[in-house]
Each structure stands twice: as structure tokens, then as C-alpha cells.
Amino acid sequence: MPHQSLAPARTRIAATHEIPEAMRRDVGLLGELLGQVLTEYGSPGLLEDVEALRELTIAALEDADGQILARAEELVESFSADRAKEVARAFTCYFLLANLAEEQHRIRTLRVRDGEVPLEEQQPADSVAAAFAHLREEVGQEEAERRLRELRFHAVLTAHPTEARRNAIAASVRRIGDLVDRRDDPRMGTGALAQNRRELLEEIDNMWRTAQLRVSSPSPLDEVRTALAVFDSSFSKVFTRAYRRMDDWLQGQAGGTAAPKAPAFIRLGSWIGGDRDGNPNVTASITRAAVAQAADRVLGDLEARARAVGLAMTLDDRYTSPSDELSALWGRQRQLSEELTDQAAQHSPREQHRQVLLAVAGRLAATRARDADLSYDGPEELIADLRIVQASLVSGGATRAAHGDLQELIWQVETFGFHLAELEVRQHSKVHAQTLAWLEDPEGAGKTAVPGEEVIETFRAIASVQQRFGVDACRRYIVSFTQSAQNLADVYTLAEKALGGVENAPVLDVIPLFETYEDLQNAPRILEEMLQHPAVQRRLEQTGRRMEVMLGYSDSAKDVGPVGATLALYEAQEKIAAWAVANSISLTQFHGRGGALGRGGGPANRAILAQPPHSVDLRFKVTEQGEVISARYGHPEIALRHIEQVAAATLMASAPSTEQRNAEAARRFAPLAEKMDAVSRRRFHGLVDAEGFAPWFAQVTPQDEVGLLAIGSRPAKRGLSVESLEDLRAIPWNFAWAQARINLTGWFGLGSALEAVGDLEELREAYAEWPLFRALIDNIEMSLAKTDRRIAERYLNLGDREDLAGLVLEELDLTTKWVLAITDQSRLLEDHRVLGRAVELRNPYVDALSLLQLRALRALRTTELDDAEIEDPRNLLLITLKGVAAGLQNTG
Ligand code: PGA
Questions:
Q1: What residues form DSSP beta bridges with 587?
Q2: First-to-last CA distance in the chain?
Q3: Which positions are catalytic residues (predicted)?
Q4: Which of 11, 70, 314, 349 is most buried as measured by Cβ atoms within 10 A of its Cβ?
């Protein structure tokens, strides 16, 4: 019997977003297979209960008086404790599968589109080819090429606990994805399809039986391992593919036969094992281990590649004569070690290019094994060897061999060095001040948030990492909550004290992280003071006046709300950029932004294009984390697309026309911005500073329980002060509101701000002409679409503050009203086909999970439960937290 279960919803609303046939087929198939697994292996009647709830939540969407949702709620209340958990697990599996079908469809679309859209129809905002063509028109060929060479995309992986899925579940999803992908192959016959279906069933059954919840939190080194797995499955392959694509486009027919025009423009950074701000589990020894593991992995990869390129390089010396430099290199290699070269000498006679490359691979193996005699000093020495091989091939006429796989190996080394990712250290400014006080007076300093010895040891760890792996393996030190130049000076002082003098201290680039509204406003002044510091001056001299500043999106939004934060960030970036220009500093602005909209998430290219003049200057550095890493880089095709969009937008952001447009718009709409800023902040503070807000927030959202999810190595609170909202990290702040489907961190304050402006004509003009405002409204629209008033009301009712609940709902209505008016729509996301479809298709299923979560929360909030009784509702709650996160496709 076919299981028609869990097919996509066919409501009137969903019908307006036409689902492409292939995607409907995939969702239908996966839903059906899940239905079969639930029937076969769930407890009796499970599928019927899932179906009944699903039908009610779908029907409830079109039921104005809320009767049907109330019935769904009754059904949920009637489930036994075990049944409730089972139903929650079933819906969670459904999301995992629906997300997968959607991703599969994206990949399908990208494949079909690849190479088919003529250049004239490509958008400069998301195609490197079009962006380059546009730039060339504005600044000329030579300057456009120079800019291209300067392009830099620096992605920094963080261990921020935002990926709710366990690794085991993510791996299961990947395997199912591969099976679904294979079904598109037209060569699959009936037998192969039947087998594929059987394998799918096996995998889905496996997923269903895998616990959604981790038993214990991952350790920082588990987090390092997760990141290394992404290196293996994605980064190690797609970056060079991205360069190759770009180069093929730039060179046309000559692609692969001439020196590349595309630079190795990506660099990876990592905070995993380095970021100790509020995470006592990240210690000096973890930092050492994190670097060592990454280095080991990348050296292994380079060795394997060098060997593969070498083995395939079977060019006979009679047909491709080696250059003198190559022969000399071979001579040096022979001299270095006969053992290293003997095998190549015997097995590849008259194949000197091959011999040399195999010896290179041997030296890489030695570098990995820390064999001091044969180790490379660093990546530069390796690149120099590879370039000799390349030049020899060119002079021998083998231009394809020179610029094919060998070039990709060179790109690989340029991108990853011998350390894979630059590990960055981060710590809170208060910790440094406390440590200095402790050093001064160990007895009288009082309790420090982090043991002083540990802080000191961290600097020693950095020094030893630099000695062993090179300065670039770890030289950036970020100071969160920087509030004065002193906060930065403290780090240099501590480094000197730790190593017993400036001459032994590690090379450090201390980077201020500005996070609160006030700190953002003070940023230019703090930077100016910083410039006076001798250590900073010294670094500027050494680096050719390069400098980095980091801006925190989520803490600023937590501080003043999303509207005030967006405007404050723009203003700070504009001023910082102007300050850098005035001081002849090449500045990189490092954007600390995350997946959720309340943390500065949203499409990267749109955000880049809305940046103030000179704030990008061909360099885009950003944090990438948790579910965003898998969403953007998990699949090679999607990763390539993301990288291309970022590169295109970064090039375009520096086009004179973009800079001019943004500057003019900012000038023209300054009064509007000022008004929005003041009103939105007032409104936001009216809520969060209200008497009793913090306990109420803990009552109406699963804030406390979010901290129990074992998804990251760090605690949900920083622990620098007593229990307070201030101490709560921005991620759980966002996570909790999102789970309650209130999501106010993404939109609260906008409605009042727009109401105060009141002029729809002006607002529509701003929407059309001011990229920052457009991005703000579009992001807020997305946030609103993930909000659900009916469900939100139920969460708000868990508290006993009608005034606060009323305030939230009133602002929600106002914000929705204005967003619809400005974008001229009758429904949210009406004009965003793909996104609208995704959100609307999922919503009824998320609703089902939300009702289950509410049931658990009610039990936890309104009844006195002993330890045994608490188990069931808490478990149900944790399962639904995962499920809702999967449904909304982000956490905090
Ligand atoms: P943080 O990150 O709490 O580590 O500063 C916040 C975020 O990424 O949203």
C-alpha cells in the first residue's frame, strides 16, 4: 500500500507558490518512505496521529477564528508522554528530509543553469563574470585586473553553538542526499531505482532510530574534528574549483594554458579551539592541539595531492626537456636525501618533472612527521619548488601540464598554507584587566573570571604555535567588548609579561571587537587612541599599514534592537573607513554576523553591496558558523555559487558607481535614519528595560532550556556577572525568541519607527534607492515570515504580563503592516517565490512542533514537578527545540 503520508501541503496559500515538479516528486517520495518507516517501526497508530495533527495544522492556516488550531492543541494534549515524543521525532525527521529535497532542487537548478545564462543576462551582484565586466567598464581593464588580484574573501569558522543537528544526523542526511541525487541520473533503470529505494528506506529508518539529542556536550576538540570534516568534504576541493571557474571565464580559450588570472582569493580562519570568550573549556593546551590537528590534516592533503600530480606527470624528458633550474632542484633533492629520491630515481627514469614532484611529496610527508632534516621551512619554500617545476614545463612547451593540476596544487598551498586555517584567539576585555590586576597583586585582586595562569599560558601557547607552525598559524587576537584603547594595550602588556619581555613575545595583531551601541559610536575615537600605542605602531610598520577591526552584529542588536543596530553599524563602518583612509591604513572590517536575522544573517552579497564606501575595499571577512557552514559549504555546487556571489559582490562594492550610490543614499536619507534610530531604540528599550522583563522572558520562551541543549562546548551565559540578561549570550537570546515563534530579535522596533516617519511615499523611495534600507526591510520581512502570531500569543500567555505581551503583539502588527505597505504586497514574501514557498510549506509542520513544545513548556512552567516527573516534558521540549530549529532552518 503506498503511504501517501507527509506529502507537501496543498493549501490555497501553498498552491500560489508553485512547487517545481521534480521537487514535489522528491518531497513526496521521502514523505512516503518516512510514512512507511513510521508504520513499520513506530508504535501502533503513530502515523495516524502524525497525519491527524498535520491535517489540522494545515487546515488551521486558513481558519480565521482559530478553532482548528485549538483542536490541534487538544489533540496534542491528548497524546501520552511517549506518543508526544514520537510525534515530535517524526516531524523533525520530516524537516530534515524536506530541507534535503529543497537543497537537492537548488543543486539541480544550478546544474541546469551552469554556463547557460548569457553574460548580458547575468547580474553583477552574483556573477563574477558580470561584476568584472561591469568594473572594467567603469575603471578600465588594467585597474579592473589589479582589483581582481587584490580580492580577498576571508571566512572565519566559529564554534558558535548554532548547529542543532548532531553530526550523526547530518551525516545521515548527507547519505540520503546522495541517494536522492542518484535518482536524477537518466541511466538508472527500474532495477537500480528499486534498489535505490530500498537503500533510502534503510537510511531513513536509520535516521528515525538515531537519537536527535546528544548525551553530552561536544568538547572543543570534537568541534575541531567537525570543522576538519568540512575541510575534507568541501573546502579542500571547492576553493580551487572556484578559482578555476573564475580563471576559465577570464581567459576563455586560453584557460589552463597560461599563467592564471584568478588569484587564490580565499583564506580560512578559525575560532574553533581559539575562542575562549565565555568558554572555560578552551584552554591553552586545546589551542595548541587545535593548530596541530589542522596542520596535520592540511599537510596530509598536500602530500596526497603532490603525489597524485607527480604520479600523473609522466612526461618524458625527450619530449619535454627539463630546465636547468629543475635539474638543479633535483640535484639538491638528491643531496638532501638519497632515501627520499631513490625510488623516484629508479621508477621514473627520464621523467625529471615527475621525479621532482615525488620528492616534493616526500618532503611534505617529512614535514608532517616533523622530520627536521627533510621538512620544508614553510609554504613559501614549497611554492618556490612548485614554481620551478611549472616554469620548466612552460619552457619545455607543456603549458597545459604547467597550468592544470599543478596550478591547482599551488593555489591550494596559497590558500591553506601549512596550517589550513589561521587560528584566532578571542577573550573578553574584562578578563585581561582582571589578569593584570592579579599579576600586580595576587592576593588582593579578588576573584577572576578566568584563572590568571590560564590567560598567561595562552600567550605562551601562541608563541609556541608560531615557532612550530609559523606566525600566520596564529597571530590575531580579538578583544571582545573593547571599550578603550587600554583594552588593547592590556593584551600587548600581558603577552610581554607572559614571555618575559617584548623580544620574546609572539607577533600579535590585536583586533578590537566593537559590540554595543555605545562602543560602536566610540569606535573611531578608540581607534585613534590605539594608533598612539607603540605596539600598534610597530605592527603597522611591519605590515605595510594593514589593520583589522571587528564589528559584532548580534550583541549590538541585543543591545538596541535590530533597527538601531543596523544603522549604528553602518555609521560606525562609514566612520571607521573614513578614519582608515585619512590615516593611510588598509583596513579590513571583520563582520561578526551569524545565521539568524537578529544576528546579522541573511544573504551575504546583498549585505556587502549595501556597505558604506571604502568599508569593503576588495576585502570581505566574515564569521561562518554552525548550520550556516553546512548550508553554504556542505554541497560543492552550492558552495561554488556562494563563493561566486561573495566574490562578485565584493568586486562590485568597490565599483565607483556603487560607492557613489550608497554614499548619496546615506546622505539623502540621513534624517529618515535618524528618526528611525531614535524611535526604534526607544521602543526596544521600552520593552527590555521594563520592570520584570528578564524573568518574564524566561517564562514565555524556552530560554533556560536552550542552555541544556548539548550542541556546543560553551555555556549559554558568559558568567562574568550574576544572572542577568546582560550575561546571556546573543545566540540563546535569539534562539529562545525564534523557538517561541515571536522572533522579535529580528524585527522589534521597526513598526514604531516607520509609523513615526509615517510617509509611505518617502519610505517607498528609500526602499527603491537606499540599499541598506532595502536589505533591512527584506531581512525583516523574512523574520516576520518565520513569526506566527497565533502561536506567539500562546507563548506570551505563559507569562502573566499582559502589558508586555500586548506591547509585543502591537509592535508585530505595526511592523507587518508597514513592511507590506512598503513592499506593496498583500502577504509576506509574496514576491519571493523560492523563499516564500520554503517558509510556507514548512510552517504548518513547525506549528505542530510548536504545539508540542507548548505542551512541554506549560507542564514545566505551571506545575511543581519532582525530578522524575520533569524528565518527560523536558525531553519533549528538547526534541522540539531541535525540530523547530530544523524547520525554521536556523537556531539563534
Ligand atoms: P558571541 O557570538 O556571543 O560569541 O559574541 C554572537 C553571535 O555570533 O551571534
A1: 547
A2: 41
A3: 160, 558
A4: 11
As given in the structure block, the three cell numbers for residue 658 are 556603487
Digit-coded pLDDT (tens) for 372-402? 999 999 999 999 999 999 999 999 999 999 9
| pLDDT digits 0-9 by tens, 752-763 | 999 999 999 999
Distances 728 to 41, 717, 781, 887 between C-alpha atoms, Å: 41, 5, 26, 24
Place of cell 515570515: 785
> For the range 757-763, what are the long-range contacts, defined as Cβ-Cβ under 8 Å and sequence gap of 24 or more?
757/672, 757/675, 757/676, 760/821, 760/822, 762/672, 763/672, 763/818, 763/821, 763/822
Strands (E), 792-848: none
What span, in angstroms and rounded, lies between the C-alpha atoms of 767 and 779? Answer: 12
Euclidean distance between CA atoms 781 and 774, whole angstroms: 10
**Burial of residue 334 (number of CB atoms within 10 Å: 0-12, 13-18, 19+):** middle
Q: How far is residue 156's CA from residue 225's CA, in Å, rounded to a whole number?
A: 16
The residues, any chain, with a CB within 8 Å of residue 508's CB and separated by 6 or more, are 462, 475, 476, 477, 491, 492, 495, 535, 539
CA of 526 to the centre of ligand 1 (A): 22
Residue identified by cell 580580492 is 151
Looking up cell 566593537 gives 514
Cβ–ligand 1 distance for 622 under 6 Å, the answer: no
Contact between 306 and 374 under an 8 Å Cβ cutoff? The reply is no
Whose grid coordinates read 528578564?
694
Q: Decide: 572 in ligand 1 pocket, CB within 6 A.
A: no
The number of angstroms, rounded, from the C-alpha of 85 to the middle of its chain's C-alpha atoms is: 30
Q: What b-and-e string marks burial along 812-843, b requiring 16 or more CB atoms within 10 Å of the CB?
A: bebbbebbbebbeeeebbeebeebbbbbbbbb
Q: Which atom in ligand 1 lies closest to the alpha carbon of residue 600? A: 9
The answer to whether the pTM exceeds 0.90 is: yes
Ligand 1 atom nearest to 718, measured from its CA = 3
How many angstroms is it from 772 CA to the middle of ligand 1?
A: 22
Domain ranges of the chain: 1-116+167-210+832-892
CA distance 149 to 136: 14
Dist CA 705 CA 878 (whole Å): 7
C-alpha distance from residue 627 to each of 209, 379, 711 (Å): 22, 32, 11
Q: List, in sequence order, the alpha helices (H) in 11-124.
A: 12-16, 21-41, 46-60, 67-78, 81-113
Residue 53 to residue 87: CA distance in whole angstroms: 9
- In 3D space, the residue among 866, 599, 863, 837 whose CA is nearest the CA of residue 736 turns out to be 599
Q: Cα separation of 389 and 395, whole Å? A: 10
Distance CA 86, CA 88 (A): 5
- Interval 852-862: pLDDT, tens: 999 999 999 88
353 lines ligand 1 (CB under 6 A): no
What is the pLDDT, as a whole number, of residue 1? 35
Q: Whole-angstrom Cα distance, residue 334 to residue 578?
A: 55
Report the residue count for the chain.
Answer: 892
What 3-state class would DSSP assign to 374? Answer: coil
Q: Region 486-514: what's the mean pLDDT?
A: 95
Q: What is the rounded distance in angstroms from the CA atom of residue 185 to the CA atom of residue 188?
A: 6
Cα within 13 Å of Cα(613), Cβ side: 16
Separation between Cα atoms, residue 183 and residue 196, nearest integer Å: 8
Distances (CA, A) of 611 to 519, 546, 573, 773: 19, 20, 8, 11
Q: How far is CA 234 from the centre of its chain?
A: 14
d(C-alpha 660, C-alpha 658), whole Å: 5
Nearest 5°: the CA angle 634, 637, 640 is 90
Give the H or E element holding residue 267. Answer: strand 266-270
Q: Give the residue from 692, 776, 783 showing the smallest Cα distance to 741.
A: 783
